[in-house]
Amino acid sequence: MKYIYQDSTELPVQRDFTEDLRTFLGITSQVIPLENSIIEIKCKQKEALHELKSRIEGMNNFEKKLETLLRKLVNEIDVEDVIPCTNAILQTCSENLGKRREILKAEYINIENGTPDEYKKIEERILDVLSRFLIVGVYGAEKRFELSSNTNDISGEMEGWVSGLQYRYTLTFTEENLTVEKLLGSLSLPGWARAGILRKEEKIKMHNLSDFLITFLEYDTQKNMRIFLENKKANRKFRIEGGDHRYFVYEDDKEITSDKELGDFIDMENLARIPEKIQAYFKTSVSTYNLSKILLDEEDAISTNQIFDCLKVIAEQYGVIVQDCLAKGHNKEEITIKMEEADGTRTEKYITKTEIYAQLAEVGSEGIEIAGILGVDSRTQIKDKKYLIV
């Protein structure tokens, strides 16, 4: 399947853009009200805490001013008989205000500790709504995958980033361990070994690493990779790293590829196929992606209420393609793409500017702002942008 504009040029991202756009509109309609409800809860909490604090401070000020006033009055009258009365008044005031202060302080602590539980549930809903979308819906994002493995468990992480937006997923896998054979198939690397019947000599020997365990793996969308391998006894360890057809092999900390004799025995073409095998493994063997964190300019976007700003980053990428669809399409009120099958059959899909604007306008001012970024608001002129899409 190939995705093209109406003028038959290819889309910069080979995906059903109209479907991704509809999904983006849907998650925007869900997420912005959720974030606004958190902001409202925090505002109410702040107001309630401010009121309680003001009342406590007011009682403290009253008690201090009352004592100052009574002491001044006693000094002016200069009669010892009024001193017991003054002390009784101050003691009664202190006892009554003290009890009331304790009640207000307990209420303050209860609001301060209880409110986060209320909006934490909403934050979890935001992560849940965004979880499936961010994996594939953020155009132009660089991605890094990481995997750690032992004899009975595999854990992993995926991180994506673009224009200050970062998102992280924890990964679970369908398998309990990962061997070289499962990931790469057959792999042999050279090493020095002593051989000979009458006289032992150092000779090059190819070591089959198929049953070695992959203990750590790192891979990114630029096809850079780093793999740590070790045998079951953990007394032999290899590392392969590199990218762009330049790879380096280490046994422990000694580089094999820099050894002129050993280096000639390394199958570099086989190593160059590793990134594609890693990519295929992640596509077929990840069982769950769980969105754990969203950052904007290295700040937690959930706790700082910046999810709307994250959506604007995504909208900027989508807006470029929206404008290209309008420029290359026949109907300037529709965002249209074509899908071309392998046999040349073409079908069209579209979504109207009016439909996009109407759905976003229901969200409120934030939705209208995103409509402007997408370029479906007639009052807004979208800026020229270069694609970040790879």
What report would you give on this structure?
The structure is a single chain. This protein has 390 residues and is an alpha+beta fold. The chain has three domains: 2-33 and 304-374; 35-132; 142-290, no CATH class. It is 47% helix and 26% strand. The strands form three sheets. The chain has a ten-stranded antiparallel β-sheet. The longest helix has 61 residues, at 17-77. It is flat, with a radius of gyration of 33 Å.
Question: How many strands, which pairing sense, and closed or not: the largest β-sheet?
Answer: 10 strands, antiparallel
Q: How many β-strand runs?
A: 15
Estimate the strand proportion: 25-35%
Helix content: 40-55%
Strands of the largest sheet, in order across it? 11-10-9-8-7-2-3-4-12-13
Overall pLDDT level = 90
Tally of helical runs: 9
Query: What's the SSE pattern?
Result: EHHEEEHEEEEEEEHHHEEHEEHH
Radius of gyration: 33 Å
Q: Which residues form runs of ≥5 with pLDDT under 50?
A: 380-390
> What is the general shape?
flat
Secondary structural class? alpha+beta
